[in-house]
Design a protein that fits this description.
12 helices, single chain, mainly alpha
Length: 243
């Protein structure tokens, strides 16, 4: 009974974070679920909820979405998946994860400095910044399944509007997760047992998601951006330590 309560809390916290920030379900759920399940099983158990919430948010925030900011990122991600993975497999995992952690920290610090707007006009607003973030994301997705932070940073940088940022993230990850779902299905990772375990915690996910949406719609853009920066810094610390 104690284990079931803890697992319910994990799903609640993951869904809350996802609905408020627009990402973070797997970031929270997989490490914590791995305490009770093998990592592969933990990934599969949380996957339907993560994918479902992304797809719901893509539909929910569809009025704030446009394709133009997505194009450089998608192009870079595809390039990274096919080219970056090949090179990443020949580099030590420790170095790669810490490089990604430093990249995250530098972008977060940049977002805090007063001169950021002048620099953004000349460089970060360029399609090449999206392609670079996409390439890094695709590379880490292909090699280590750690592609989320560069995508979040890209959308966080090109817009200060939390509704637009969430619509972009939701659409991007929905496309990506549909591809991953096909891969998981073909390789037989989904089982009846894992699906039963997933469905058991549906009430916790629904409650956490509703609470996250409620808090989000009462938070200002500045509060939202501050939470995003804190979440990204937390990810970088975990990446640096967990090698």
């Amino acid at each position: 009974m104690y284990t079931e309560i803890v697992l319910a809390l994990i799903f609640f916290l993951s869904a809350f974070t996802m609905s408020f920030a627009g990402f973070g379900f797997a970031m929270i759920s997989v490490p914590l679920l791995s305490i009770f399940f093998p990592v592969k099983e933990a990934v599969v158990i949380q996957f339907p909820y993560c994918m479902g919430l992304f797809m719901y948010q893509a539909w929910h925030y569809r009025k704030h979405f446009c394709w133009s900011p997505m194009q450089p990122l998608l192009l870079g991600t595809v390039s990274g998946l096919f080219l970056g993975t090949f090179f990443l497999y020949y580099m030590p995992e420790t170095i790669l994860k810490r490089m990604l952690a430093l990249f995250i920290v530098l972008i977060v610090i940049f977002n805090l400095i007063s001169a950021r707007h002048k620099i953004e006009v000349q460089s970060f607003k360029s399609p090449w910044f999206g392609r670079i973030c996409g390439f890094i994301s695709g590379s880490f997705l292909g090699a280590y399944n750690l592609g989320g932070p560069p995508v979040v940073m890209y959308f966080r940088t090109i817009t200060n509007n939390s509704l637009k940022a969430k619509s972009y993230m939701a659409a991007f990850f929905s496309i990506l997760f549909m591809v991953i779902a096909v891969v998981y299905g073909v390789t037989g990772m989904f089982t009846l047992e894992s699906l039963r375990t997933t469905l058991l915690y549906l009430p916790s996910v629904l409650l956490g998601s509703a609470t996250g949406f409620w808090v989000f719609h009462r938070a200002s853009n500045s509060v939202y951006n501050m939470v995003i920066d804190m979440a990204l810094l937390l990810i970088s610390v975990v990446l640096w330590i967990n090698v």
